[in-house]
Amino acid sequence: MLFLHAFGHSFLHALKNLFPIIAVVLFFQLVVLQQVPDNTLSMATGLLIVAVGVALFLQGLELSIFPVGKSLSNQFAKRGSVPILLSFGFAMGFSAVVAEPALIAVAQQAQEISEGRIDALTLRLLVAVSVGFVIALGVFRTIFGYPLHWFMVGGYITVVIVTWFAPEEIVGLAYDSGGVTTNIVTVPLIAALGIGLAASIRGRNPLTDGFGLVALAVMVPMITVQLYGVYVYSGTGSEEIAATALSGEQKSLPVALKMLLDLASMIRDVLPIILTILFFQYVVLRRGLANPSKILFGFLLVILGLYAFVVGLKMGLFPVGTSMAEQLIALEQFGFVYLFAFMIGFATTMAEPALLAVGKQAEEAAAGRVNGNTIRILVAIGVAIGISIGVHRIIVGGSMHYYIMGGYTVVIILTALAPKYIVALAYDLGGVTTSEVTVPLVTALGIGLATNIEGRSVLIDGFGLIAFASIFPIITVMLYAIVMQWLADRREVPS
Q: Which residues contact 165 (CB under 8 A, 6 or more apart)?
């Protein structure tokens, strides 16, 4: 009974996150386009399945991964063993990202569009290893108190340099891969680890030292995926093509068998984080789990939730994004495309649960210097502007390189000018803006636009919207902090 109540609450929470998307789509369908798509029932069913999947997934996290992960983080922080903390940081970063629904969605789209040249599993493993490494690096930074901006400025300079040499087919995807690594699974665990460490070490500030792990987790995958693209597009790729052939064979299998195979792949996705938790709990800490049956049930819900989520994606969110792109392009009035992008970006971000969590943690850590609601609005505006600019790039056909390098140049300059207390938080906020609901929709929108605009490449131009959604919140939050600091300084100057 208690579970059903909790599931009902999670389901309503998932519907609440979907509501902004439904409201915006209905507005454009009924008011602007004045028509109803032929596959409306299928898309509605898909959205409902997404809500069920997210609810099961969230409930499973609450019963298993979150309590055990946070408990482990706190215990290792109290122990203060650097090798154990670094190992735990790597393992949690890797295992959480491998099971990230938004990354699964983007990787599958990339494999299909590249006709198997980009392998979905390889892409996810690369991103997961990158995040694991960078979480360990972030833990190291927190322990020894090194300023975050050293790592971020150096890292983004490296990102920009690699972007200059990377093949254009991979650039948008690489930046999107960075933007989707920090989400419903990773953000709470990573934030808890960083803040727990900062709070337990004398001389560390939870606001300046506790935040920043999420930002680092966004940055490094951009480098590794672009390097992967250099390899993939250097003339090799037979393995990837073989993978596509295998995928084609799977499509011809009976429905029941295909469902079992899909479910088995979900188990494979979640298995790393289960093994990580069990290893550190039983081998490192040498303690048993407090309630193993409850935790096992939680893991089962996570697997079922992931499965339902992926099924719902294919039926609901992906078709909604592509359908809206097709219909808006057919109007031949690009102003409506910009308006749709802006409204979707703002509305979905305001309902983002990870943003709510980080905003609350920031408000508590800042002791009055940061307001959670103000942060949410600033981030939502940043996402809306970012997606709109990304859509503009697709429409006019500009190079991703110049937009991205220009955006991060602005970020680097603002990092030098912004008050130090806001830097780590601003970077983290850029990493929590893309939800498990927003990412598939925005990805499908970009692909749909690139498909329906003459002269655009789906692989080159279709990806990249998530990247813009991650850059501009950093800019809006830093600009706000700079302005507020300037106003405060003016008030302190005697007249």
A: 230
Q: Which helix (H) or strand (E) holds 346?
A: helix 334-350
Under DSSP, the state recorded for 495 is -
Instruction: Going from the first residue of the chain to its last (495 residues), give the mean pLDDT of each consecutive group of 10, the final group possibly shorter.
Output: 73 78 86 81 84 82 74 71 83 78 79 84 89 86 79 82 85 80 64 70 70 77 90 61 41 66 74 80 82 85 82 79 86 88 85 65 65 83 93 87 83 88 80 68 86 86 85 91 86 67
Q: Say how far apart CA 177 and CA 182 lie, in whole Å.
A: 10
| Number of domains the chain contains | 1
Q: Which pLDDT score, from 0 to 100, does residue 437 have? A: 63
> Which among 62, 35, 45, 61 has a CA at the least distance from the CA of 323?
35
Q: Which residues contact 443 (CB under 8 A, 6 or more apart)?
A: 105, 106, 109, 176, 318, 321, 462, 463, 465, 466
Helix 372-396 with 400-417: angle, nearest 10 deg: 150
pLDDT for residue 56: 85
Q: Within 13 A of 435's CA, how many CA atoms are on the CB side? A: 30
| Token pair 């299998």 in the structure block, residue | 253
Please give the DSSP secondary-structure letter assigned to residue 453: S
Distances (CA, A) of 173 to 113, 385, 441, 465: 11, 20, 15, 9
pTM of the predicted model as reported, rounded to 2 decimal places: 0.73
The number of angstroms, rounded, from the C-alpha of 162 to the middle of its chain's C-alpha atoms is 21
Q: What is the pLDDT of residue 22?
A: 83
* Domain span at 444: 2-492
Give the position of tokens 């031949």: 332
* Identity of the amino acid at 92: M
Polymer length of the chain: 495
> Is the CB of residue 350 less than 8 Å from the CB of residue 385?
no
Task: Determine how many CB atoms are found less than 10 A away from the CB of residue 372.
Answer: 17
